């Protein structure tokens, strides 16, 4: 049987990403991160759509070239349908559908969250079913039980800010750059996580939902009480800045780890997966690994280029669905708040 070649397109937020997969293995995965949002401290939807429009063709061309594949050799095209910014989604989705129409090849629209759920299959040691998935990114915080391919149950999600969003907003308050997560992670390394006791949202509630707006507001009040104005720069050498970063990070990580371990124990799963941009966080990785190991569970996170938003995870889910004979109509709409079915 000949290997199936699938092109995957992801444009749900501020990454224009395109990948080529051969029978589920990555032949290329290009990610163009839009720098235009940096000066605003967050993603500006209108600017994101325009940047996707400018980047989509060059990124598709580069992904094909790197994989050594021509358009005619593609067996199918997958693109993100949602959730995400509608103007950003429309660029990749319409490009993918038009390409499928012109080439007369199958098209599948993919739920971005399903992409993150299956991204650990792009690791060298893929997970085994059933597993528990923690997805933490700038837009989402979700715990999902994945029983079998295509069979998942949402166990909990954030009721307000996503974990990455809280990192970005706290970084903005501290006058640090964007995205804030990696900067806070780096600064926290030299700080004391026990210096300030920030609130752990919903930690002692039975729900597996999350809430991160409380910790974010607590940091804001803490800074105000000490006369640090919003956006005012605190020197990078300031020892107390490292303590604020470490204490905030500990508050977020404690809740993520506690709820994940609680769910893993209740379900009795042997395997836990971690994905989304915040999966890069060193404290989260370390603590979750320790807790999983203590319980004899395997923890898997994909390489960083598959943790963040990427075309490979979209192509992977598209490939799984195409192998199952699934096709999407070319009238498929972009859906900003698409849920996991
Ligand atoms: O998955 P992603 O690339 O894009 C989406 O939001 O979908 O995730 C980006 C998020 C940002 O909020 C960024 O601050 C956060 O991931 N992030 C981190 C780290 N690296 C990226 N958060 C905490 N620690 C990190 N090392
Ligand atoms: Zn994402």
Tell me about this structure:
This protein is α/β, with parallel strands linked by helices and 341 residues long. It folds into two domains: 5-118 and 306-323, 2-Layer Sandwich (Nucleotidyltransferase, domain 5), CATH 3.30.420; 129-301, Nucleotidyltransferase, domain 5 (2-Layer Sandwich). Helix content is 41%, strand content 19%. It has ten helices and ten strands. It has helices at 45-67, 86-103, 112-118, 163-173, 180-188, 213-225, 239-267, 282-294, 304-307, 311-323; strands at residues 5-10, 15-22, 25-33, 76-82, 107-111, 131-136, 141-148, 151-157, 271-275, 298-300. The chain is globular, with a radius of gyration of 20 Å. Bound molecules: 5'-O-[(R)-(carboxyoxy)(hydroxy)phosphoryl]adenosine and zinc ion.
What's this entry about, in short?
With 341 residues, this protein is an alpha/beta fold. Helix content is 41%, strand content 19%. The chain has 2 domains: 132 residues, ATPase, nucleotide binding domain (Nucleotidyltransferase, domain 5), CATH 3.30.420; 173 residues, ATPase, nucleotide binding domain (Nucleotidyltransferase, domain 5).
Query: Number of DSSP strands?
Result: 10
Number of domains: 2
Number of helices: 10
Q: Which overall shape is indicated by the principal axes computed on the Cα atoms?
A: globular
Beta-strand fraction estimate = 15-25%
Primary descriptors:
five-stranded mixed beta sheet; binds 5'-O-[(R)-(carboxyoxy)(hydroxy)phosphoryl]adenosine; 341 residues; 10 strands; alpha/beta; Nucleotidyltransferase, domain 5; binds zinc ion
